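Hi C.,

You asked whether I'd gotten around to modeling the 185-residue construct. I have! Everything is below, sequence then structure, no commentary in between.
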Amino acid sequence: MLTHELLSQYWKVLCLFFLPIGGGIPGGVILAKNFHIGWPMMMVIYFISDLILALIFEPIMHWLFKVGKNIPAIAQTGQIMKELTLKTIESYGQHLGPLALIIFTFSADPMSGRAATSVAGYGFITGWTLTIIGDMLYFSLIMVSTLWLNNVLGDNGGWTTGIILVLMIVLPMIIKKFRSKNPQA
């Protein structure tokens, strides 16, 4: 049965998952673990955060497209963002099928993923489905890594969150640098 205390705990974890960058995921995972929330419920809570993001971000994105037609600065910014998105996703292939868009979202973030699915011509339901699949895969990787490292370190979560956060930032840069030096890798 859902008690007020349990709902309060879920809400606190959800709020951490809403953080767009930084320690939101590892912090939320550690907080959930400290509340004795199991990994399946962590995934449900994160999925709910993605659904809420979809309901908030989609209207904002469409509003900016609509307003951007009449305001040159917004139109120019939108065009630059579209070109940057196209340039970023071209390494995933010429035809942006579902798998490429899922992988793109996994390596980027949900807002960029939804922008990419929009540029690829996918509507709200399909676009967000692909975006959420990629984001849930990313969340799963970070969640498992955080829980494992926290188990190894046995800390209260501070070191674990910090290490995972640093790895989330540094590993992509190392991989990018490695790929630029070894294009066939």
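If it helps when you're writing up: The radius of gyration is 18 Å.

Thanks,
B.
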